[in-house]
Amino acid sequence: MVKRATRAQHRGLALIDVIIGSSMLAIGLAVIISMSSRSLIRQGDAERQITASWLADELLTMALVVGPDEYAKAYPKSGRFDPPFNNFTYEIELEDSSFYLPVQANATIFWEVSGTEHFVEIETLISRRHGDAVDRLPVEPVDREARYWDEIEGRDE
């Protein structure tokens, strides 16, 4: 003869189902929250690395525009960036081996997160300008506004 479960036994099974379902839900939510917090931390790290790369590019571009000889005289070799980038510090080294060879430029940007120092370092070669200074003004003045409006009017027609 087959025994049938009583009402009390059904209530006990329902309670076990609820406990198991709740624990599975809790584990799933814990995993999702853990993954989202890690992704936010990595996003912040990526933003700081991109900012540091832009700042290093700015330093090297300034050394290129001014020229390596003048840059070494006019600008400091290390320091802190102006706000809103005052969390970043920099060092720039211009290594000169010969007057006729390019100057090796190294820009290093430092920042600190939770007591750990991070850095980005970029190297490039910058050649000197030899001879007389070249006038770099265009032959004809460029009227960008007129060009822009000509393009817009051309699309409307």
Quick description:
This protein has 157 residues and is an alpha+beta fold. 51% of the residues lie in helices and 21% in strands. The relative contact order is 0.10.
What would you note in describing this structure?
The protein is of the alpha+beta class. It has one domain. It is 51% helix and 21% strand. The chain has 3 helices and 4 strands, in the order ααββββα. A 4-stranded antiparallel beta sheet has the order 1-2-3-4, with helices on one face. Helix 1 crosses helix 2.
Task: Give the strand line-up of the largest sheet.
Answer: 1-2-3-4
SS content category? alpha+beta
Number of separate domains: 1
Strand tally: 4
Portion of residues within helices: 40-55%
Biggest pleated-sheet summary: 4 strands, antiparallel
Order of helices and strands: HHEEEEH
* Average pLDDT level: 86
Overall 3D form: elongated
| Model regions low in confidence, pLDDT < 50 over at least 5 residues | none
- How far is the N terminus from the C terminus? 92 Å
Which strand-content bin applies to the residues? 15-25%
Put simply, the count of helices is 3
Rounded Rg? 32 Å
Write the layout of secondary structure elements.
Blueprint: H1 7-66, H2 68-74, E1 78-80, E2 88-95, E3 103-113, E4 116-126, H3 144-156
Antiparallel strand pairs: 1-2, 2-3, 3-4
Helix pairs in contact: 1-2
Supply database-style keywords.
single chain; 21% strand; 4-stranded antiparallel sheet; 157 residues; alpha+beta
